[in-house]
Design brief:
This protein is an alpha+beta fold. The chain has 3 domains: 71 residues, no CATH class; 86 residues, no CATH class; 200 residues. The chain contains 14 helices and 6 strands. Strands 1-2-3 form a 3-stranded antiparallel beta sheet, with no helix packed on it. A 3-stranded antiparallel beta sheet has the order 4-5-6. Strand 1 and strand 2 form a beta hairpin. The protein is globular and about 75 Å long.
């Protein structure tokens, strides 16, 4: 259980007042979050034990040991504007626009968020309103509260890449519920890294955003035969964003991984070659910088935000009625998952046998990624011996084919950026040698 204990000062008609709030919420990685909340007025800005008596805190900290050890961790300062919106079905949603910053030990993080809270009615109305807003305002779905961001700022992890955290599935779990868990976690990895990308140039953030998206798409393919196809969200409008992320990743890999390995081979002690190499590196660095700006602009495009919210809506509205396959109703999740991943493994083996050119190698690599991400997301219900063996095989194939592609990409960059003809041919030859 996630818990936040907060003391804040708010303005009222009678002047500033202090309010103590305890919030709880499940760790589901969703932008649609169900939280428990208990508020009480207190004197000054000190924690009140009495205000916690009627809350879950008494079960967590019955003797007060934890409370006595608490100390301020961060401060949030923001201005809030609120609107009460009545939906067609008479649901009531509060829209709050917060702008300000989080502060912790001399570190700062901006706050600029829209928070929609369902005051009365059904949750679909909340998501419908969110999509109406996203039609004209650039948004990215986010599940981290201000408290979670504050703790991350204090720990120095706020702008760290979000890596995969596969969900814990149960062997007897209904397939739709399992699919929803996997979709939530993979999509959270994607959107969380998109949010972080706005704050940092860390190459790993771009990589993990792409991994999150590929894991999400792999999950959609894994479960698609058992879910209603007409409800699958359209993702075509974010293809330009995904292409831009791929472009950055290729440039980052060249700068950080492949070119440093080749540099001594090409330049040696030749000052002329060293200058040509330096100019080439500079051109790639400038292209990567420009591409990051383009990606950030794409993330801020309302079309992208609307698509991401539509995917969120799809995930959060999943129900047993979405199951259309017959297999999922007659088999345990464990056996269903193993059987479907075994079919994917066989496709991969056949693809590897005929992977003799760039196109067929790319297909084999995509299948290797699909198997790897499928196993990683469902390994909690797979036999350990199988998941380990399949993961090792998929990762090895993905790595070897990917390394060949990365080196072969270098001469294309050299030609694109107008590098010396001799350098272009050197990189072409080097890449061909790696590929064989």
């Amino acid at each position: 259980m996630r818990i936040a204990l907060r003391v804040r000062q708010v303005d009222s008609s009678e002047g500033p007042v202090w309010v103590q709030t305890l919030k709880t919420g499940g760790a589901n990685g969703s932008a649609l979050t169900l939280r428990g909340e208990w508020e009480a007025s207190i004197e000054k800005g000190n924690l009140s034990v009495g205000a916690l008596k009627a809350t879950p805190w008494r079960e967590i900290d019955p003797d007060g040991t934890i409370l006595s050890a608490l100390a301020p961790c961060f401060i949030t300062r923001f201005e809030r504007t609120t609107w009460q919106v009545r939906a067609k079905d008479q649901s009531l949603v509060e829209v709050a626009f917060d702008i300000g910053q989080i502060e912790s030990a001399g570190k700062f993080a901006p706050i600029c968020e829209l928070e929609l809270e369902l005051k009365a009615g059904a949750s679909p109305s909340l998501l419908e309103l969110a999509q109406c807003i996203a039609a004209s305002v650039a948004v990215v779905p986010a599940s981290l509260s201000k408290a979670e961001r504050g703790y991350a700022l204090a720990e120095g992890t706020l702008d760290m890449p979000q890596r995969a955290r596969p969900p814990k599935l149960r062997a007897d779990q209904p397939l739709v519920a399992a699919a929803q868990q996997v979709f939530r976690e993979t999509f959270f990895q994607f959107t969380r890294n998109l949010d972080i990308l706005l704050l940092t140039d860390n190459a790993e953030v771009v990589h993990q955003a792409r991994v999150g998206w590929r894991r999400f798409k792999s999950a959609l393919r894994l479960f698609k035969t058992e879910l209603a196809p007409e409800r699958t969200p359209d993702t075509s409008s974010i293809k330009p964003l995904l292409a831009s992320l791929g472009r950055i990743r290729d440039l980052d890999v060249a700068l950080v991984e492949t070119l440093p390995l080749i540099a001594p081979v090409y330049t040696s002690d030749d000052s002329g070659r060293q200058l040509l190499w330096s100019n080439f590196i500079q051109a790639i660095a400038e292209a990567a910088k420009s591409q990051r700006t383009a990606v950030r602009d794409a993330v801020r495009d309302p079309i992208v935000g609307a698509t991401l919210l539509n995917i969120t809506r799809y995930i959060e509205s999943m129900s047993p009625a979405d199951a259309v396959g017959t297999e999922s109703r007659s088999h345990r999740l464990e056996s269903w998952t193993e059987r479907h991943l075994r079919k994917l493994k066989r496709k991969l083996e056949l693809a590897v046998e005929v992977a003799t050119d760039t196109h067929s190698q790319h297909r084999a690599r995509m299948l290797a990624k699909g198997l790897r991400y499928g196993v990683e997301s469902t390994q909690s219900v797979l036999p350990n011996r199988i998941s380990k063996r399949w993961l090792k095989k998929a990762a090895a194939l993905q790595g070897s084919i990917g390394l060949s592609r990365d080196f072969q990409r270098l001469h294309q960059f050299a030609a694109e950026f107008g590098a010396d003809a001799g350098l272009v041919e050197f990189l072409r030859g080097y890449g061909s040698g790696i590929g064989h």
